[in-house]
Design a protein that fits this description.
The complex is a heterodimer of chains A (279) and B (166). Chain A contains 14 helices and 3 strands. Chain A has 279 residues and is mainly alpha-helical. Chain A has one domain. In chain A, strands 1-3-2 form a 3-stranded mixed beta sheet. Chain A starts with a helix and ends in a 7-residue tail after the last helix. Chain B is an alpha+beta fold and 166 residues long. Among the domains of chain B are: 62 residues, SH3 type barrels; 48 residues, no CATH class. A 5-stranded antiparallel beta sheet of chain B has the order 6-5-4-1-7, with no helix packed on it. Chain B has a two-stranded antiparallel ribbon with strand order 2-3. The longest helix of chain B is centred in the last third of the chain and has 10 residues. The radius of gyration of chain B is 24 Å and the shape is extended. The relative contact order of chain B is 0.10. The C terminus of chain B is likely disordered. Classes of the chains: A mainly alpha (279), B alpha+beta (166). At the A-B interface, helix 1, helix 3, helix 4, strand 1 and helix 9 of A face strand 7, helix 1, helix 2, helix 3 and helix 4 of B.
């Protein structure tokens, strides 16, 4: 199907070129002989991810509590170190919103909302949720979805801009905008199931009870789906019960790790000492 | 301690076992949506009571009732909006939660200052390792779980997306 690209591209270029000062030479450079868009470099992936992260932070800022942010970064970094992309520069942030959700953007940015954090009871639950988001980054789920949704010429142009770290151009802004909107629509549900399978394994590799993530899903399954704080997450993810059923079939091989620490005490102590974030 | 809830509901038809093992004797088969009392968690199992006491797999239940009270709902939390934020955010209670609805995401503007703050919060890997070893978390070698056989082939794509290039 992608082979069509090479035919359409010359037709598409004049419009794009006008709108975004497209450098046709660069686009040709980005499209391989097979008609495939070449692989996005790690630098480009990080640039796109940081642009989307900046937008997410425009929708909800960070919780103004350095200790809680550091705690989440320590757990997230440790879990990410158990992955095949441990050398990425990982960033973790708690967003100041009562919405219940978590996000990952390309290149190693992971966000969890205050609303979701306060529904958890143990560090193993946090590790599992961060592991799920890390899984999206490992598999480049969002990057691939952006590529699929942006017109090829536009995406190629944005990539060449990202490669030069020039971010204030129309094409880059447009692609980042498409990327941000993706978070309002959600990924393919198979991507979510895959991230769940990765999340429980990363938590277990990090030495935690791997059932943290399923326990969070059990909590979510019991909340009122009409609750406004759940609207976006329920719209963009398969139902928690469907995720539990999917994991249930695969997770038995991790049972031998189910006695690993949950660290409820460290989790509760860190959050309880911060009464202000509980408002 | 691990279990704050008192009740759970079976997600599907579930075997009640007399011990927390897959090959333990099956005491009964609980139909979908059976309400059970949760006694405790042991590894990948809940000990539950439904006429008789037995064990069901951790993922076979939707944990109910007791747990729902643990977190506030978003609506209940509305009254507290603004208390946890600095005065300089310019938010007021009247504007409600500055949340993450579809519209909020579509209309979001970049916030480079917060992004820089996020970058400054990154911890060195060695510090994270120390934090883990302080809590006796031991790294394990474990393979990723296989893709379920029933999953439709990935990467089917959306050909229509490329139709607009002309």
């Amino acid at each position: 199907m992608r082979r069509v690209i090479i035919v359409l591209l010359p037709l598409g270029v004049p419009i794009q070129a006008q709108a975004f000062q497209l450098d046709i030479g660069k686009v040709k450079d980005l499209v391989t002989h097979a008609g495939q868009l070449r692989d996005v470099s790690e630098k480009e992936e990080v640039e796109i991810g940081s642009g989307i992260s900046s937008n997410l932070l425009g929708a909800a800022p960070l919780v103004p509590d350095a200790n809680v942010q550091k705690y989440v970064n320590l757990i997230g970094s440790w879990v990410a170190q158990q992955s095949e992309r441990s050398n990425l520069e990982w960033h973790f942030g708690v967003l100041d919103t009562n919405d219940v959700n978590a996000f990952a953007t390309p290149g190693g940015y992971v966000f969890i909302t205050k609303g979701l954090l306060l529904k958890m009871q143990t560090e193993a639950e946090l590790a599992g949720v961060l592991g799920h988001e890390i899984g999206h980054v490992l598999k480049k789920h969002h990057l691939k979805a952006i590529e699929k949704n942006a017109q090829v010429g536009l995406f190629a142009d944005a990539l060449s801009i990202a490669a030069q770290s020039g971010k204030n151009t129309a094409a880059f802004t447009k692609v980042v905008g498409i990327g941000t909107e993706l978070y309002a629509r959600g990924l393919d549900k198979e991507d979510e199931f895959e991230a769940d399978r990765i999340g429980v394994v990363l938590a277990a590799r990090a030495g935690y009870d791997p059932y943290g993530l399923p326990l969070v899903l059990q909590t979510l399954a019991n909340l009122n789906p009409q609750d406004s704080s759940l609207a976006l997450m329920f719209k963009t993810h398969p139902a928690p019960t469907a995720r539990l059923e999917a994991l249930g079939k695969e997770m038995t091989v991790l049972d031998r790790y189910a006695a690993q620490p949950e660290l409820a005490t460290r989790f509760v102590k860190t959050l309880d000492s911060k009464q202000e974030i509980k408002k | 301690m691990a279990c704050a809830a008192d009740y759970g509901y079976t997600l599907t038809s579930t075997e009640l076992k007399d011990a927390p093992f897959t090959d333990a004797k099956t005491l009964a088969t609980l139909p979908e949506q059976t309400k059970v009392e949760i006694i405790l968690r042991q590894g990948a199992w809940w000990q539950v009571k439904k006429e008789q006491t037995g064990w069901v797999r951790l993922l076979s239940l939707r944990v109910g009732e007791g747990k729902a009270a643990v977190g506030d709902s978003g609506l209940k939390s509305l009254v507290n909006v603004g208390l946890g934020r600095g005065a300089d955010t310019g938010l007021t209670i009247a504007t409600g939660v500055r949340g993450l609805s579809d519209a909020d995401l579509k209309n979001a503007h970049p916030n480079p200052r917060e992004l820089q703050k996020l970058r400054n919060m990154a911890v060195p890997p060695a510090e994270a390792q120390k934090f883990a070893s302080n809590a006796k978390l031991n790294a394990q070698q474990i393979n990723y779980l296989p893709e379920p056989a029933a999953t439709p082939a990935a990467g089917s794509g959306n050909p229509a997306m490329f139709g607009g290039g002309r």
